[in-house]
Amino acid sequence: MFEKEIRSLFARRHVGLPPLAAHLIFWPLMVVGVVLDLWSKRVVFDYLQQRGSISIIDGFLRLVVAENAGAAFGIASGQRCLLVAVSAIALMIVFAVFLFSGTRQKLIHIALGLFAAGVCGNLWDRIFNDGLVRDFIDVVYWPGRHWPAFNIADSMLCVAVGLMVVSSLFTRKSCRKHARRQK
Q1: Which one, out of 62, 65, 163, 180, has a CA that is 20 to 30 A from the CA of 147?
Q2: pTM, entire model
């Protein structure tokens, strides 16, 4: 009797791997994102090492050479081992959510692919660039005020967060509609 209950519990909790369509979104997006991030860092840094900063939109957007020893906004600066460990754990969580959450939403698959690409791009720098993440996009949001420099990986992480927020807003709405129909 106890064995039947355990089997029933596991049968209800079992969630299959994502469908092929999810894999065809997640993995290519992750690979292309990492390649784009690492390529852009290399090209921009090689170019700027010889020429200095470049103004793209005067007074608003420049390409610069910047290296960040911390996380966002310099948090945990100089804590290379901690940041590598946090990035590795975050990457494992993203993979686990993708593989085992059972979500069928393409928007979530896109967001997770962007998360994975962003984490991998910055993790690569932390491991192979003496703990320094290469940033090169400089935005002036107010005359004389600069947003901290960032890179393509950081952009992918921000877009992923935005997609998750949008997805959660629509998912909750659809769950409420489904719940009303059930009553």
Answers
A1: 163
A2: 0.83
